[in-house]
Amino acid sequence: MSQPQSYRNQIKTQRLGKSLPSGFIIKTGKFVWSTMWHIMMSQLAPPNKSGEYIRPNSQFRNVISSDENSKYKPEVSRYRLYIGLGCPWAHRTTVTLALKGLENTISVSIVSPSPDKGIWVLDREEEACQTVPKLYNLAQYNLTQSSYSGRSTVPILWDTQTQTIVNNESAEIIVILNSQFNEFATNSILNLYPEELRESIDKWNEKIYHAVNNGVYRCGFAQTQEAYEKACNELFTALDEIDTALGTSRYLCGNLPTLADVRLFTTLFRFDVVYYGLFKCNRRRIQDYQNLGAYLRDLYQLPGVAQTCDIESVKRDYYGNLFPLNPGGIIPSGPDISNLLEPTQRDRNFES
Description:
InterPro entries: Glutathione-S-Trfase_C-like, Glutathione-S-Trfase_C_sf, Glutathione_S-Trfase, Glutathione_S-Trfase_N, GST_Omega-like_C, GST_Omega/GSH, Thioredoxin-like_sf. One of its GO terms (cellular component) is cytoplasm. The protein is α+β, with helices and mostly antiparallel strands and about 350 residues long. About 40% of the residues lie in helices and about 5% in strands. The protein has two domains: about 80-180, Glutaredoxin (3-Layer(aba) Sandwich); about 195-350, Glutathione S-transferase Yfyf (Class Pi), Chain A, domain 2, CATH 1.20.1050.10. A five-stranded mixed β-sheet has the order 3-2-1-4-5.
């Protein structure tokens, strides 16, 4: 007996409701999204002809010095750091502040990325307590240099006396913080950039910047498969090399932390949480390495460092604001980072 027509229509409707979109809709959607993705990515992460992400250079490169001819001299409460809690480059500066004990010498203002405007903006509480100038968003870089045409980035080292940007290159700001405010630092004895280790520190910094610090972005922002494969290979080759080196040394340049460790730490802290998934750096997690995982915990447990780490802001800023990489804006609930407080034994393993 044949089934009633109404029943067959019901089954057909149910099947249609569960089916995938038509081939035409899929092809059209892929074309539109791919085109828009490349347009947005070209603005977010300018590529070269091979689709490789090329990070623009910072343009404010002044220093602070006690030299009589210096425009910027070290003083308490004169300078302010503008940082984003999710930004690894800005995070370097707050880690250095904590290690040196400069929290009462240099003020810190927190900015957050605006997903709709594409700029960094001051939190409302921060904006309310700001003295002039009202840097309510960092697109106002040209307040101090009208000809400025570069990106508005963090960190910024700001001079409240002259109302100018001193420096916006994180690698140079942490050198300044390490050396120029020792008379005010509570941990002035710690030298993160000692003369006798500078050659070794600089070599590590050069390798780590290209392959790791910027390498994760070269993976995540790659616009061709070839560019991604190149960046990913260089990233994990470098991580393997670092892991091997840490098998015979507590830190990168010996038994005491240096600026090379500071620069590596802020990337490692974000790796398993963000870069592993969102940036497709998923060959291996940092915690799966024999030495890198314990090394990350060792740095995290240094006095004051954990207080500079805000994992929820990291997830919000990456997953919630990088629309081309995460169009839905869904922020993952994990992972649990309580393992960073587990004992490492590295202090005992490498006693001098």
